């Protein structure tokens, strides 16, 4: 890396993207194995479970999807609830858009935008030269996507045998993804604005969960966090502006 944060000429953005995404595998693969196992137990075949991860690729929404389908819920309700949980992507897109160079591939590549890839991209893309951003994002997204698919296939085919042989894994795997979120969020607590935003988001999510609004907790908490962030940022910007005027 040079002093401006851009990749050096000898550094491949594809290699850097893959390297940055590797830590995500520690959270993705265990949860994907859990999904594959649960999906098969819900009546889906190993192939169907793997295709769900490849085509829907939506984490929590996939667990909700198989639970609702297995319970006989109408298709329109399954689609509606899946879209509701993924409504946070309405916030993700505009936040990444300023850093995305023009390319006809972005509509396809956005299939690989997950919470963790967003967190990585939001911190990494501004540091990269514009010509390197497409390669970095593509590599990072593909590593995460293929690890999720592979974990699902492994869970669907051999998940039962794995948890029977090592029962502790069955208890630990569901906590892998929350632990990964904590690792990604921890650096943000160095900023007052981000700290207050995250505390607000977490508090709203927990409150909604306690009130029994489980399915709406994630999108509503995300919206509350967005509102808090922009209110606090507007206040900071106003103070800076007033300070400039006072010294002008």
Automatic annotation (TrEMBL):
UniProt main location, coarse: membrane
Alphabetical list of InterPro entries matching this protein: Brnchd-chn_aa_trnsp_permease
GO CC entries: plasma membrane
Pfam families: AzlC
Coiled-coil blocks: none
Listed GO biological process terms: L-valine transmembrane transport
Topology versus the membrane: Multi-pass membrane protein
Cell compartments where the protein resides: Cell membrane
Keyword 4Fe-4S: no
Transmembrane feature ranges: 28-56, 63-85, 134-160, 216-232
Alphabetical UniProt keywords: Cell membrane, Membrane, Transmembrane, Transmembrane helix, Transport
Stated family: Belongs to the AzlC family.
Protein name, UniProt field: Branched-chain amino acid ABC transporter permease
Species, as recorded: Rheinheimera riviphila
């Amino acid at each position: 890396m040079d002093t401006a944060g851009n990749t050096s000429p000898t550094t491949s953005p594809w290699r850097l993207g893959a390297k940055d995404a590797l830590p995500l595998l520690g959270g993705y693969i265990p949860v994907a194995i859990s999904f594959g196992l649960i999906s098969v137990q819900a009546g889906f075949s190993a192939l169907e479970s793997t295709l769900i991860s490849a085509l829907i690729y939506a984490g929590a929404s996939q667990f909700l999807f198989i639970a609702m389908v297995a319970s006989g819920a109408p298709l329109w309700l399954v689609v509606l609830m899946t879209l509701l949980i993924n409504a946070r992507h309405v916030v993700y897109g505009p936040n990444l858009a300023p850093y995305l160079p023009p390319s006809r591939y972005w509509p396809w590549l956005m299939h690989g935008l997950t919470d963790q890839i967003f967190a990585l991209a939001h911190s990494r893309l501004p540091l990269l030269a514009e010509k390197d951003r497409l390669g970095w994002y593509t590599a990072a997204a593909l590593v995460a996507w293929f690890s999720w698919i592979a974990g699902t296939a492994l869970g669907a085919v051999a998940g039962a045998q794995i948890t029977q042989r090592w029962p502790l894994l069955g208890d630990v795997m569901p906590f892998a993804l929350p632990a990964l979120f904590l690792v990604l969020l921890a650096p943000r607590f160095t900023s007052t604005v981000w700290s207050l935003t995250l505390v607000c988001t977490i508090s709203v999510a927990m409150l909604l969960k306690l009130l029994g609004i489980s399915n709406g907790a994630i999108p509503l908490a995300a919206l509350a966090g967005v509102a808090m962030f922009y209110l606090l940022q507007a206040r900071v910007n106003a103070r800076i502006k007033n300070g400039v005027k006072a010294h002008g």
